[in-house]
Amino acid sequence: MLEYYNYIKSLHLIFVITWFAGLFYIPRLFIYQIEAFQKPSPDREILGNQLKLMAKRLWFIITWPSAILATLFAIWLLILMPAWLQQPWMHVKLGFVVLLFAYHFKCHLIYKQLQNDVIKWSSSQMRIWNEGSTIILFSVIFLVVVRDAINWIYGVIGIVALSVLLMLGIKLYKRIRNKNPEA
Fold first, then answer.
1. CA distances from 129 to 63, 91, 110, 134 (A)
2. pTM of this prediction?
3. Per the omega criterion (within 30 degrees of 0), is the bond before 27 cis?
4. 10 Å Cβ neighbour count for 130?
């Protein structure tokens, strides 16, 4: 079975990438849905219905299947390489995977609310939420690539710095957008 290892790993990576693509894009659609809900009729209905359809297709045709397949191929890899479960970096990675699933399930709850025209988030709050998957992705990639050589202090500082930069970028975009609503 080890002769198939690289194929299984490739499929795992492909589905992780498509899963993240869905998680990057779905909050953007949520932002557009929230903003469309504030528009006057008939724009609100036309945009709202189109964005709901786009979100439904993205969520159930790309994001959910990718999450399931990435997980199945990951389990298969761990069955082939059980020694990885003894590695401290793998424990931390699996912690981030749990966090990623928590993010995914929260996105699912937001998706269901927006499909029913229940708006509980502002577009600004959703922009901040949108960066959650980015922070998880950075954390996992650096962890997997650097593994045991990672210096936890620098890793934590790096994630905090990335988070601060993302928040500053969001604030800068908000200022630009307030000055020029077409941006």
1. 17, 25, 11, 10
2. 0.84
3. no
4. 20
